[in-house]
Amino acid sequence: MSDNFVNLHVHTAQGSLLDSILTVKELVDFAKENGQKAIAVTDHGKMHSFVDQVKACKAEGIKPIIGCEVYEVDNQAEKADTKDYKQPRYHLVLLAKNETGLKNLFKIVSNACVDGMYKKPRTSLNIIEQNEWGKGIICLTACQVGRMSRLLVDGNETEAWQLWNKLKWIFDDVFMEVQSHDTPDQAEANAKIAAFIKKYNLPYTITTDAHMLSKEDVDAHSVFVEIGEGREVGESYVDCYLQTENDVLKTLSNQFDEDFIREGCSMSVKIADMIDDIDIGLGQPNQMPEVKIEGKFDSHFDYLRHLVYATFNKKFGWMSEVEQQTRRNRIEMELDVLKYVDYIDYFIMLYMLCQKADERKIPRGYSRGSGANCLCLFMENVTQIDSVRWDLDFSRFANKGRKSLADFDFDVSKRRRKELIAIAEELFGKENVAPIATFNSLSTKVAIKDIGKVLNEDPESPYYMQIPYELRNEVAKLIPTVKTLDDLGEEVEKEVLLKDILGKSKQLSNVYDKFPLWFKYVMRLEGLPKSMGRHAAGTLITPKPVIEYCPLCMDREGNQMCQLEMHNAMDDLSLVKMDFLGLENLDIIDDTLKMAGLTWEDVDINHLDLSDKAVYDTVYKSGNTIGIFQMESAEARKMCVEAKCDNAEDIIVVNAANRPGTKDSFPTYCSNKLHPETIKLLHPDIKQLFAKTQYILLYQEQALAVFRYAGFPETEVDNARRAIGKKKKDVMASLEVQFRDGLHKKGWNDYQISEMWALILKQASYSFNRGHAVAYGLLSYLTAYLKTHYTEYFMAACMITKEDDSGKMGVFINECDRLHIRVLPPSVNKSDMEFKADAEKHTILFGLKAIKGMGESVASGVIADRPYSGLADFVQRANGGKIGTSNVVKLIKAGAIPTKDKKKILITFANMVFENEYKEKGFHEMASLPKISVLKDEYGIDTNYIKDKSTRLALYNKARRVRWEADAENRKKEKDKKRKSFMQAFAEKYMQDEHMWEFETLSMFLTSNPIKEACTYIDSSLDTVEDGGKATAICVIVDIQKKKDKRGNQFAYLHVYTTGGIVEMICWASQYARYSSLISKGSDLAILCKRKENSYIVEKMKPYKQWLQDREIA
Fold this sequence. Notes:
It is a single chain. The chain is of the alpha/beta class and 1114 residues long. The protein has 6 domains: 24-77 and 85-274, Metal-dependent hydrolases (TIM Barrel), CATH 3.20.20.140; 300-431, no CATH class; 437-581, Bacterial DNA polymerase III alpha subunit, thumb domain (Arc Repressor Mutant, subunit A, Orthogonal Bundle); 584-789, no CATH class; 791-928 and 976-995, no CATH class; 1010-1113, CATH 2.40.50.140. The protein contains 46 helices and 24 strands. The longest helix is centred in the last third of the chain and has 23 residues, at 968-990. The chain starts with 23 loop residues before the first helix and ends with a helix.
């Protein structure tokens, strides 16, 4: 049955953040279930949901109406509210009538988000009119916050009529909007709007301004809005849910007659019929940017073949003919597949990017993801991994069963990441390149806390003052987390949803029984989008300007980005997305090589000795992996030691196995490697399938090999690849019967098959592909190689990268100490901007830029004007003589100006400053005479007798000199008084807490670490402590922020310097009262603390020296 109504004004959770709780699936399901032929999405100011909307509608046979509720103002350029005036911001609903209208809507929204952003994205009717962006667009006059409604409610009918005519001039079609809400304010607005409609015989329609699915969601939605504080002034959400014609008739029955209501509903259907079935590009072939080939080639395929073989002799000319032929065969196989799946231009595009990057010497990683599995990419110098040498399965990257575009990602120098994106803009057009959007969801734990807080503090809540902070936190802790991999392959923790765990937890069930409404709201709201940002690496590269495919917006740093998410761009619109991920380790390698006088070619991983015993002995086997790519965590160090890593495959395995889900099999790897006589195989054929991993299932390629072994054709193996890579459990389940049948035919029994299937299912959530593991394993080896053979340079490079991270710097200082490298404080005569190593002297010298608060321009000036013979010379000449008092103080405190006594030289400097500011000018003879009366009365010069002016002047100056010399003692006393005052002020400002000076300027204790001895006993940082766990922190208090609780009791936030960096601790009132005598800046303490999520709560403390004595006694 069909419904004579279409919801034309609808907001989604993703597009109207913290304002709507309605998902795209819910609104499309509603339309289908209620026989509505179409459904609109008109999110506030942005269009994040339009692709998901169109896709979901098409799947259910519903017409999608693409729209946006824009914010319009009188003057878009005005971006500063004052105390007395705030420019009104009105709502206006715009619907794309056809493809022209959609493109214009993209432009309106982009302009509002990019040029008009001030609190909200704002456009203006004048801008839309001037650019003729109203063509192809249907306009509705919106809600109570619309300009039309405001004018009519305020009695400004003349202006309302002028507005109507202006809208008619700008847009293709305009309809007055009556809203199906039965609130006093809306009823008043509806009455004025209806009267206006009837007076001028205007077309109108009825909308619901839906922000939720049904009336039952009103309270949950209200709580959601309170969380985000996103309510627009004057905006009400009562009745803002999806409605049918009957719902509208019932809601408005007290306001209008039935004919008026039915006419408004019918018009919504007519408007839907006016709108074209717009093609946004779903399911199109890969939309590649234009690539221009160089030279005379008959086709792009011939050009790619040329690129691939151009490097063959250089890469493989030294190999045997058999090895060369193996690679030729592999290349031809790959080219055949690449041509079949239409990847030719994509590969040329990758080559163009990498060629430019290499010309500019931008460091890049060996590969990321499955790109290492492709030999052709190695031939193009896109990757540095010989996929034949490392036995990498090309089908994991591309195969004839794969329909979607391959997803190649770049690891690039973090410092120079923007340069690679700039290269993409140069090659394919700046307007064709844009970062991709990503959303953060309202996690279950946050929902429990935020919703509990709203219910606890709302006097009208049934739980008013019943859900205190402590209870909210305790309940949140009951929500478990699972570890998984994000779309960049990094390990992340993911919370289990309350709705999935409630029936399995007695504690949560008990809370639910007491506070059912609290949990009801949490389960309704958990997982909804909470914030939008720029994806860490994802960048869209399009054939035409990005604005042709979606609107643009701005990220928090003021950079343009597109309003598409990754899956929309790649999977739905077939656009090219590339990840440009900044990797600090590449900067560390690059800095090390430069300091050592080497190039990347000198350490080419394809020619580097991968069997260097010193590398394995000093780094991996011993677990000394500080600074080593992918191996710094306690877990990775432990795995390296347990496996007794002595070859590249071990490193690759540790890299892949140190992930949730795969860690469980690692002990078997170690056992099989170290004790081969104890190996137990699930089935004899495992030997050939899992030979490189000591017969354990570790890589995605191994799982795919099992599917092939079970008889799956390549197209179905690709289904398994997608299911494993994208963690699609439903697809995996659909393959199980065929999998079991295939292994039965190979002679496997039910137990063996079930065990293998269980292993593959487990892997589907967590495993790496082998190509990624190889690339990252080899990059790890390079860092270990440099640390082993260029130790000082490597450690200095690590410090350069982390100079702003005091915790990491502390770790590096400790590692240098272990390696017998002396880390020296900065020096005005020797330091560069960055850290500098001396391999012969086994020293690393602090860079001037690492001094806290030392600007780069000042540091550059210090370097430019040296050498300096002493303090006076330095103050006079450094930075052109404009070094500044505070900078000199910082340099002295940091140890950059040579002295055995920092306090003494600070006093010397203070006197220099004083003398400069209060310098006595000496006696100065006057050139002119004062009044006669002054000469006679004050200086006793007989002007009646002495008439000559020059004689008078000589006598006058002589008398003045006598007086000046006689006053020397008084001047000295006055100067001494000023000096005392100045020195006191100087000392108060610059000379407090002498034992903290080094930390104050270097953010660490370098030459006099008061807690250094603690490293003998403690070798871990607090961030390794589990939530709820306790640990002892050996620390120095570096800052104290005192507060008072609601009862007026003193408590404090303590910032403490530990062996693992700066940590904030909370010392609540009871502990503060007990230990206040110990709490002072610079105190060395042992603090027993308890971790509560990301906070550390003080439980006990004692002086550090006492703790040391207790340890020695123990």
